[in-house]
Amino acid sequence: MSKTLRIGTRDSELALWQANIVKKLLEDAGHKTELVPVKSTGDLVLDKPLYELGITGIFTRTLDIAMLNHDIDIAVHSLKDVPTVLPKGIVQAAVLKRGNVNDTLVFKDNEEFLGAKHAVIATGSLRRRAQWLNRFPTHTITDLRGNVNSRLQKLQDNVWNGAIFAAAGIGRIGIRPEEAINLDWMIPAPAQGAIMITALEDDDFAKEACAALNHEETEICTTIEREFLNKLEGGCTAPIGALAYIKDEEVNFKGVLLSEDGSKRIDVTRVKKLGEHNDMAQYCADFVIERGGKRLMDKIKYSNKKTNVFSTKSFTDDQRLLFHEKVVPESSDFIKISLNRIHPRFLRNEIQNVVITSKNAVEALTANFSATELQFKNIYCVGRRTKRLVENKIGKVAHTEKNAQKLAEYLVEFIEGTEVTYFCSDIRLDALPTVLSENNIKVNEVEAYQTKYDSYKVADSVESAMFYSPSTVESFVKNNTIDVIAFCIGETTAKEAKKHFKDVRIAKVPTVESVIELVNEHYV
What we know:
Layout: E1 4-9, H1 13-28, E2 32-37, H2 41-44, H3 50-53, H4 61-68, E3 74-78, E4 90-95, E5 103-107, E6 120-122, H5 126-135, E7 140-142, H6 148-157, E8 162-166, H7 167-172, E9 180-183, E10 195-200, H8 204-211, H9 216-231, E11 240-247, E12 250-258, E13 265-273, H10 280-301, E14 309-311, H11 317-320, E15 329-331, E16 335-339, E17 351-356, H12 359-368, E18 376-382, H13 384-393, E19 399-401, H14 404-414, E20 419-425, H15 431-438, E21 442-453, E22 464-467, H16 470-479, E23 485-488, H17 491-497, E24 504-506, H18 512-522
Parallel strand pairs: 1-2, 1-3, 6-7, 6-8, 14-15, 14-22, 17-18, 17-20, 18-19, 20-21, 22-23, 23-24
Antiparallel strand pairs: 3-10, 4-10, 5-8, 5-9, 11-12, 12-13, 16-21
């Protein structure tokens, strides 16, 4: 039986429309599918402008985390909402043929206000705001949030002259009013009008299924636009527009960067033969930067933001991308690991029962010995990531549990024999050896690595901290006495955190990404 592809999507009308298009195309190709609607941060927070929330990724991060946690197989996005750098392990699987790229002005009564000195226009987009003010500097821009239907209703309910929408959005769900005109002078958001599908990098089945839906011309154009955005280091917190299209075997490009108030504007255009366009985005970004673009970007990017979340483990670039704009994180490794030399006498004979509770112990073992030297009959471990590493580098795991306490309880019931060898740190919890010893199971402890505290005093603005082991909690409190909200990777870490903090929260699954999701939920 073929695999059912779980299609992750936001639950707005437009998002569901897009997801259903993908669903139909996949089913027409013979695949079984299932829609999995997921509420995103962007849909839940409607009282702030998109550019204050950081629109890049705001509608995709929840789906990214769902995919990394294997809750969905593919995700359907409006490509303009997707960060230019995808999280590690997630790839672009397909881009559908592009729809209308334009922005559309929906107005009341008539268009006479366009020639008036004063008018009120509604939009939540910084790019649209800046381009409108550049063209109509005496007009007033008011914020507009919500789904397409609610924004149209707000236009009717308020004393505004008009509101700006993506033409593709109101067109796809069939609610474009007669009182609407396309703004062909307004350069759209990079990849506007395009639908994109993401999948896990190692999911060949999903990638192959989606590859048949890819539209090459749209992929070429949107890739150039998004690369231009990336080279300028801008997200939706910057007023950047870009549009590429192919005509007569030539790639035509136009891009723009503006100040937030629209008073400053830098434009670039470029035409290259199809096939010779690979450096187009870089050239255009450099052109903008050299003409004052860097100063504009720095002014926009480096506003006065104070760190409010501290992580006791350093983030990768991909993990940092998962935070939304209300989170201003700082990270540092508050524990340092030093691998020990493990004497060969411990491995002279095959060991019947081995306990491994961390990836550091795996690294220590594989640093000291080859895979053929690590002859273990039964391997028991804590955590699915530790299990994955053990099975990649040493051998099959007999059993795994979420924490050391539960593993000890399992071993008391089901262990073969009455002895275990426990590869651990010089700093380790007492739960496992205590429970085993109390039940007449001998524990041979081998110090595989050392854990050293390496903390410092964090900024006074820090309101919460992220912890990944009891040791990270202990290291943090050595130099910090503030009562932060403690976001913990699991129950064992939370148990230690509760000794020091009043508000302790535990991630749904023991991954860094899930701790990040917990932080995002708090800072909505």
